[in-house]
Amino acid sequence: MIISFSVVRELMKRFDEDEVFDLSAELAYFFLLSLFPFLLFLLTFLSYLPIPHEDVIAFLSQYAPSETVHLIETNMRQLMELQSGKWLSFSVLATVWAASNGMSAIIRALNRAYDVKETRSFLVARGISILLTFAMIFVIIVALVFPVFGKMIGTFLFSAFGLSGVFLRIWETIRWFVSFIILFFVFSVLYVFAPSKYVRFRDVWSGSLFATVGWMVVSLAFSYYVNQFGNYSAMYGSLGGIIALMVWFYLSGMMIVLGGELNAIFCCKKEGKMRIR
After folding, report:
1. pLDDT tens, 152-185?
2. Measured between alpha carbons, how far is 227 from 57 in angstroms, rounded to an integer?
3. Is residue 277 part of a domain?
4. Which of 15, 22, 69, 212 is most exposed, with the fewest beta carbons within 10 Å of its own?
5. pLDDT average, residue stretch 24-53
């Protein structure tokens, strides 16, 4: 579907009507609550794989500001001192509980976008939130692990078959393209199953594409701004890293909400049920 001027205008109107700024702030809060339990789970899980935590930091540094990466790296080192198998179950429970609250907030945001009320029971809605949380945790781990294993596979093929350096460059592009596809799939699943409304996969690709590209562009742009111009530590002191992290989460939440709003706009246009103002 083509994003026309009327769609852009409708999207801008929904900014205020659906309180996109407030919803993005709510998502940022829950993302922050779930981050460190997730890091504990991730470190415990990766301890069973031949992947050092530096590879995770290297992956995050491509999108997150340097202050945020430093904050996450510092906490990861502290969590590594606590790392043991017994923490795996605890970290899973803590991550799922904290992240499912954020998922519930996304469900409310998408229901508002589609102008529908939550008709599912509390247990069903919470169950969907938990299932989507598990799905996102799994996909995030795959997105983090694949670039590392992809690099190992590419290096092995390069040395084993004597391939040229062009192969490594092409392989590098393919690896990150797969990460893009994984992120696109995550948003698609989220936009299909989260709303209290029947939505098909073919009806959410535009919002998923917008959210995927938007998140990557916004993350890279914000990272460049913070690294080059925005010294949060100078203004907020030791809280600079947390403030930068919250702003990054805020922008990420906004991209998720806007992707859902875009899907809702196309759905309303298709059904001929545009909002009455």
Report:
1. 666 666 666 666 667 667 766 776 777 788 889 8
2. 16
3. no
4. 22
5. 72
Split into its structural domains, the chain has a count of: 1
Please report, for residues 34, 41, 141, 150, the alpha-carbon distance to residue 87 in angstroms, rounded to integers and kept in the order given.
15, 7, 17, 28
Query: Which residue would you say has higher pLDDT here, 177 or 40?
Result: 177
Q: What is the pTM of this model?
A: 0.76
Task: Return the pLDDT at 148.
Answer: 57
DSSP code string of 225-252: HHHHT--HHHHHGGGHHHHHHHHHHHHH
What single-letter amino acid sits at 210? F
- In which domain, by residue range, is 239 found? 5-271
Cα torsion 46, 47, 48, 52 to 10°: value is 60
- Contacts of the segment 53-57: beta carbons below 8 A, 24+ positions apart: 53/80, 55/144, 55/147, 55/148, 56/144
| Cβ neighbour number for residue 50 with a 10 Å cutoff | 8
Radius of gyration of the chain (CA): 20
